[in-house]
Structure formats: C-alpha cells, structure tokens
Amino acid sequence: MKKPVRVTITGAAGQISYSLIFRIASGSMLGPDQPVILQLLEITPALPALNGVVMELNDCAFPLVAGVIATDKLEEAFDKTDYALLVGARPRGPGMERKDLLTANGGIFGPQGKALSDYASRDVKVLVVGNPANTNALIAASAAKSLDPKQFTAMVRLDHNRALSQLASKTGTHSNDIEKMIIWGNHSSTQYPDITNTLVNGKAAKGLVDQNWIETDFIPTVQQRGAAIIKARGASSAASAASAAVDHMRDWALGTNGKWVSMGIPSDGSYGIKPGIVYGYPVTVKDGKYEIVQGLEVDAFSRGKMDATEQELREERAAIEELLK
Ligand code: NDP
C-alpha cells in the first residue's frame, strides 16, 4: 500500500460533498491502492451535520481511509494537503446581484487561497467547484502568493460529460466512443461546447449531425442542463457534479494517456484568450501536469462563442478586481 495522501473537501456537509466524499473514500479518484486522509471543512453552524457525515463515513469501514478530520479551521483543513476540492460557496440569495455574489464568494475563496499558500503541500492541486467557479478559482490563485496559479483549476468537466452524453444519445453511440470534446470558457450558460474536432468511433462528429442541431439543440441543452435538472428533481445536480469532480482530479493526478479533457485553467494567450482569467480549455495531462491542446483551427462561429464567454469572465473579473491585489 502507498503512503496516504491528504485530500481537503470544503462545504463537506453539502449535497455535492455527500456524494463526493464517499467516492473519494472508495478509491474512485486516486485509485484502489492509494490511502487517503480526508480533511473536511465546514462553516461552524454546519459542523453538527458534518459530524453525521463523518459517522456514516466511519460506518462504511472503507479500507483506504487512513484518517478523517472534520473542522471549521482553515489551517487544519489545508494542513499539508495534496488535493483540495473547494466545493462550499455562497449561494445566490433572493435579490442578490451578480457583483454581490462574486464579492461574497471572494470573502470565502481569498482566505482559502491564502491558507493553501500557507499550509498546503507545495505540489497541491486545487479544483474549484463552488460557483462562480472560474472566478472563485482566480481569486484563490491570486491570494495564494507562494503557489503557482497553474495549481488552481475550475470545474468544467460536468459540462464536458454532459456534452458527451448528449452527442452519444444523438448518434446512438456510447460516450466511450467519443473523443476530442471541448468545453471552452466559463462554467455558466455562456460556455461553448464545441464538437468541431470531435470524433465518434473515429469519424468526424460534424459529418454525423447537422449544424441546426448543434446550434438549436446540442449547445443550449448542455448550457441549460443544470436548470433542467433542478426542474425535474426539485434540487440541483449533486451526484453528477461530484462524479465530474472525481473525473477532473483523477485525470489531473493520474494522467489522460493522450485523451483530451476540458479543464478551467489560467488563460495564457492560447487561442487569443489573453491572460488574467480562468477559462475552459482542452487539455491533456501527463506526469501531473496539464497542457493545452494547441494548433486547432477556430472558425468564425467558434470564435464568436469563445469571445462571448471570455467577455463574461472579463466582466466577472472587473467586478472583483480589488480582491486580486
Ligand atoms: P451544493 O453542495 O449543492 O453545491 C456547492 C457548490 O457547488 C455551489 O456553489 C454550487 O453552485 C456549486 N456547483 C458547481 N457545479 C454544480 C452543479 N453542476 N450542480 C450543482 N451545484 C454545482 O450546495 P449545498 O448548499 O448543499 O452545500 C454547500 C455547503 O457549503 C453547505 O454545507 C455550506 O455550509 C458550505 N459552505 C462551506 C464553506 C466553507 O467550507 N468554508 C463556505 C461556504 C459554504 P450553485 O450555487 O450555482 O448551485
């Protein structure tokens, strides 16, 4: 058995975490031979509920769980952590403007970024799930002065998986048969699910579906899937969000063997997206490092969609610019 690694989960008594913690504990994220110490963070009023989650976790008697810490203290939650999944966030309240939501979340993700910088492993990998995920990741990265901003990522993997599922259903195939899907930009309704380069059983997806379906069905369905689930279930997606978080971290930790996946990462000028935001890109991962897939053609349709989601992220950034100093 390997030496245990430390995994931090924030918002650990929430809906997503109720699925996520048990998937990680069972070995789905880091493999069946990797023990984990789970460091669970909650706000003080949620500690009794978190205690209930810990009781259930203990009752599972998971062979890979080498320790559990439940706390409301950042320094304990992030101490020497190797993987941090930042799930807890401030939900939008009635009448709350986007700027208020962004600022309220700045008050959470700024201190968490600083605590990661002060206490985490120097190689920590951070995934932000809590919304607005891309901009929360930007705030955390900016506050983490002693870490590389590339250690901070945002989750667009649920959008990626939703896009695979929609295309598989349309083409009568399985998501395993699909390669080279891309989600560009923000984890919001401006995201751009792009099948320009996608292959289905080795054939160009664009030759199997028509442009009208892409524009009026596929893209809006993927963009609005969260709302459709709330309508159907009476609650927001939680298990699928947790599953996507597991996929994102597993691929970052263990590699993708050349497979493309989508990750929200600091923009570096690739594809004309100037630095300064956290933007969804196609990446491959090797030896714990992700690299943007380069050299793709961008047609006028894609350019418009990529610029629109960039514009939204620049506006989000402008709303919290003072928090980045
Ligand atoms: P969830 O566990 O359902 O959601 C947590 C966050 O994930 C929200 O910001 C949510 O965004 C976001 N999210 C990202 N992608 C998705 C997706 N596809 N579907 C649904 N959500 C998505 O929220 P709960 O309210 O159940 O739990 C949050 C917990 O966080 C609470 O227990 C609270 O006490 C805690 N919290 C902890 C903090 C901390 O540890 N310091 C700080 C703040 C809160 P959206 O709101 O847009 O649905």
Task: Give a list of the ligands.
Answer: NADPH dihydro-nicotinamide-adenine-dinucleotide phosphate
Weakly predicted, low-confidence segments:
none
What gyration radius follows from the Cα positions, in whole Å? 19 Å
Quick one: overall form? globular
Number of beta-strand segments:
14
Spatial order of the strands forming the largest sheet: 3-2-1-4-5-6
CATH topology of the largest domain: L-2-Hydroxyisocaproate Dehydrogenase, Chain A, domain 2
CATH superfamily of the largest domain: Lactate dehydrogenase/glycoside hydrolase, family 4, C-terminal
- Main sheet: strands, sense, barrel: 6 strands, parallel
Helix-strand string: EHEHEHEHEHEHEEEEEHHHEEEH
Helix content: 40-55%
What's the quick description here?
With 325 residues, the protein is α/β, with parallel strands linked by helices. 42% of the residues lie in helices and 19% in strands. It folds into two domains: 5-154, 3-Layer(aba) Sandwich (Rossmann fold); 156-319, Lactate dehydrogenase/glycoside hydrolase, family 4, C-terminal (L-2-Hydroxyisocaproate Dehydrogenase, Chain A, domain 2), CATH 3.90.110.
